[in-house]
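Work Package 4 report. The design task specified in the project plan requires that, given a folded chain encoded as structure tokens, an amino acid be chosen for each position. We show below one input record used in the internal validation round.
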């Protein structure tokens, strides 16, 4: 079972763009958590902040490869996000850019780390270079919902 975030957010120092760090421990090995992030069929089961459906999940997990995810939230809004993989260390680290189709000029960066923790995984998500605090706060809500869904997905698979 996924545990609550140990460190929900990192405070910013003056002059830095807003950033967010979430840490979860999952009762699944790093390989399983990695697959959940990198296999399109797995992403379709848990990605997004609520029970809305993922209609498209594409991944080309290699440095320079791209991902693209389209999902709806329960309020009926469609979300379309994509980016480019910058660092790929299978089962250990994944770094990629992040941009919404509605604001392509606002490119941020997501870094994921997958560390063995007993028979599970300590998972860290760091999202950096937000446009402003409102964007960071919205992503905190979205990522928190997604991490809850990821935990439930990993329990079943």
């Amino acid at each position: 079972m996924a545990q609550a975030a140990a460190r929900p957010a990192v405070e910013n120092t003056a002059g830095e763009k807003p950033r967010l760090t979430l840490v979860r421990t999952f009762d699944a090995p790093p390989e399983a958590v990695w697959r959940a992030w990198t296999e399109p069929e797995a992403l379709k089961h848990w990605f997004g902040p609520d029970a809305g459906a993922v209609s498209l999940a594409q991944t080309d997990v290699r440095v320079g490869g791209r991902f693209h995810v389209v999902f709806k939230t329960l309020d009926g809004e469609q979300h379309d996000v994509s980016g480019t993989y910058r660092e790929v260390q299978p089962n250990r680290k994944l770094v990629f850019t992040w941009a919404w189709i509605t604001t392509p000029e606002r490119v941020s960066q997501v870094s994921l780390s997958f560390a063995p923790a007993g028979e599970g995984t300590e998972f860290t998500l760091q999202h950096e270079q937000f446009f402003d605090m409102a964007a960071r706060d919205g992503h905190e809500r979205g990522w928190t919902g997604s991490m809850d869904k990821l935990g439930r997905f990993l329990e079943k698979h």
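The chain has one domain: 20-156. Validation will be extended to a larger panel in the next phase.
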